[in-house]
DNA sequence: CCTGCTGTTCACGTATTCCGAACGCTATAC
DNA sequence: GTATAGCGTTCGGAATACGTGAACAGCAGG
C-alpha cells in the first residue's frame, strides 16, 4: 500500500503517523497515541516534543492539537501555481450563479485536493465549516465529479497508475468500484464534456464537474457544483443547464489563462 | 535556540529541515538540498522519497516542491477553534470599510500567524498573492501591530517567555529591539486600547492593531489594518479614526462571541 | 567520445531511536 | 487522610535503522 521506492525513513513516518493520528482524533493525549500506534510512551513522548518544538503540534494541557505551522506550508503550496489562484476566484461566482456549493479541485499524486470552496446564497464568504467539501479536503479521484472529470483527460496509463496506488474504495452503494465500469464512465465524460456524480461519494449528494486544461492540454484542475439530491434534479435539462454554466465559466477562465 | 526539552528526534528534525528548505528555495533539487543542509546525497534521497510518498513534497522532474498534503492539516488547525472562523469573517468588512489591508492574527507558541487577510477596494476576494501579509504567514510578536496588541494583554511572565524563546530580531531600523522599550510600549498600548506599528516590520508600512478577548479575558487573536505610510497618515486624528473602527468591530464581534 | 552533472544504489559502522521499567505528580475513590 | 489509578516524564541499555561515502546509471553539453 504505502509502496516506497528506496529505503523509507521509518522515524519520519512515525512522526507523521502521530501527526495524522492527532488530526483524526481531533486532539489526543500521549497515552492515547501510544496505544493507538502501538508505540512505547517514551517514544511518543520524544516525537511529540519534537513536533511541538517545530510548531506542527500544539500542546494544550495534556492534549495535543495540530499546530498552525502547517499554514505557511499549505499556503505556499496553494499559491505556488499562479493558475490555481486565478482559478480559485471563479469558485465564488459559480456558487452565486448556481446557488449551490462550488469548489475548485486539483490533482496531486493521484489524489484530489479542494483548493477553494464556496456556498451560494450565503453572504458569508469564507464560511465553510461543517461541509465535507471545505477547502483542504482530500478525495479519491473516482468518486467525485471533479475527480472523474480530470481522470477522463489523463492518459490510460496514468489512470491505471492512480488506481493501482489508491484503489477504488466505496463510500456509498453507488460508488464505482470496478475498473471496467470506470473506464466506460470516463469515455462518456469525454464525449459529453462534463462529469456527474450521483450519490457516489456521499448519500444524498449530487454534483457536476468539468476540468480546466492549460494551453498545452495539460489538466490544471476541475470545478464542480453540487448540492443535496432534492435540490439538484436528476432530469437531463437541469443537469445540462448547470453543466453549461460550468463550461462557460471554464471557457472564460481558459481564455484568461491563455494571455 | 531550538531548545527542546527531552531528547529531540533528530531524524524528524532533518526531515522537517528539508521541507523548510524546499519551501524557502521555492523548489529545490536533491543536490542543492544536500549541499545546503550539509548532508549526504543518499540521506537526502531517502528523506525526500519518504516525504513524497506521504504527500508532503511533490516531485516535478528533478525539483521538489511543497505538496498539497499540508492543506488538510492547516485547514484543520484553522477551523479547530470556531472562534477563529467567526473572527475571520470580519476581516473582509474591515478591509472594505477602511479601504486598506486588514488581517486577523492569532498567537501560537509565541509566534503570530495570519489566519485571514483581505485588501479593500479590490473586488477579488481571496486575491492576496504578493503581499507579505497574506494568510499563512508567520511573524514575530514584537514588530507587528497585532502582535504587540496581544502581548499587551498577556502576563509579563508569558511575555518574557516569548521574548526568551524568539528574541527581538530587527527587520527595519524602527523595530523595537530592547526589552525595556517594549514593555513601555505595551503599557502605552494597554492605556490606549490599541497598538500601532510605524515601519517597525517593513519600511514604508504602517498599521494599527487591536486584540480580541474572550469572555474570560483570554486573548483570542487580533485584527490589524495597515497600508503604505503615504496613505496612512501619521497624524493623531486619522489613526484614531481607524482605531475606533477596529474597536467597534471588535466590540461587535465580542458580543457575538458571548452568545 | 568524454566530461560533468544529475539521481540512484549498496554495504558498512555507529549514532539514534526505541523500549521498558521506575519515577513524580494529580485527581479520584475509598 | 490514605490508597490507587492514571497521566506524563526520565533514564539506562540494546538493537535497529539512519547516515555516510564510494561506486553506478543516465543525461546534456562540449
TrEMBL record, chains A, B:
Gene3D superfamilies noted in UniProt: 3.30.450.40, Winged helix-like DNA-binding domain superfamily/Winged helix DNA-binding domain
PROSITE patterns attached to this UniProt entry: HTH_ICLR, ICLR_ED
Annotated ranges, domain IclR-ED: 69-259
Residue ranges of coiled coil: none
A GO MF term: DNA binding
Family annotation (CDD domains): HTH_ARSR (cd00090)
Domain HTH iclR-type stretches: 9-68
InterPro entries: ArsR-like_HTH, GAF-like_dom_sf, HTH_MetabolicPath_Reg, Tscrpt_reg_IclR_C, Tscrpt_reg_IclR_N, WH-like_DNA-bd_sf, WH_DNA-bd_sf
Keywords in alphabetical order: DNA-binding, Transcription, Transcription regulation
Keyword S-adenosyl-L-methionine (UniProt): no
GO biological process: negative regulation of DNA-templated transcription
SMART domains assigned to the protein according to its UniProt record, in alphabetical order: HTH_ICLR
PANTHER family from the UniProt entry: HELIX-TURN-HELIX TRANSCRIPTIONAL REGULATOR, ICLR FAMILY, HTH-TYPE TRANSCRIPTIONAL REGULATOR RV1719
Name of the featured protein: IclR family transcriptional regulator
Organism (species): Natrinema pallidum DSM 3751
Amino acid at each position: 500500500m504505502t509502496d516506497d521506492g528506496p529505503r523509507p525513513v521509518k522515524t519520519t513516518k512515525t512522526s507523521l503517523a502521530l501527526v495524522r493520528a492527532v488530526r483524526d482524533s481531533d486532539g489526543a493525549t500521549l497515552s492515547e497515541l501510544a496505544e493507538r500506534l502501538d508505540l512505547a510512551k517514551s517514544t511518543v513522548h520524544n516525537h511529540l516534543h519534537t513536533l511541538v518544538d517545530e510548531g506542527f503540534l500544539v500542546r494544550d494541557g495534556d492534549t495535543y492539537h495540530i499546530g498552525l505551522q502547517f499554514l505557511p506550508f499549505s499556503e505556499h503550496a496553494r499559491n505556488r501555481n499562479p493558475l490555481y489562484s486565478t482559478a480559485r476566484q471563479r469558485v465564488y461566482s459559480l456558487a452565486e450563479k448556481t446557488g449551490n456549493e462550488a469548489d475548485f479541485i486539483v490533482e496531486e499524486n493521484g489524489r484530489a485536493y479542494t483548493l477553494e470552496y464556496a456556498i451560494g446564497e450565503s453572504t458569508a464568504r469564507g464560511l465553510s465549516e461543517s461541509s465535507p467539501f471545505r477547502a483542504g479536503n482530500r478525495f479519491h479521484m473516482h468518486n467525485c465529479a471533479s475527480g472523474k472529470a480530470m481522470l477522463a483527460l489523463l492518459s490510460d496509463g496514468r489512470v491505471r497508475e492512480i488506481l493501482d496506488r489508491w484503489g477504488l474504495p466505496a463510500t456509498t452503494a453507488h460508488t464505482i468500484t470496478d475498473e471496467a465500469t470506470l473506464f466506460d464512465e470516463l469515455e462518456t465524460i469525454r464525449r459529453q464534456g462534463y462529469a456527474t456524480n450521483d450519490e457516489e461519494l456521499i448519500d444524498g449528494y449530487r454534483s457536476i464537474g468539468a476540468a480546466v486544461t492549460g494551453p498545452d492540454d495539460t489538466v490544471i484542475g476541475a470545478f464542480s457544483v453540487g448540492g443535496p439530491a432534492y435540490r439538484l434534479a436528476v432530469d437531463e435539462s437541469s443537469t445540462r443547464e448547470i453543466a453549461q454554466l460550468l463550461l462557460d465559466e471554464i471557457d472564460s477562465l481558459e481564455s484568461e489563462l491563455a494571455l
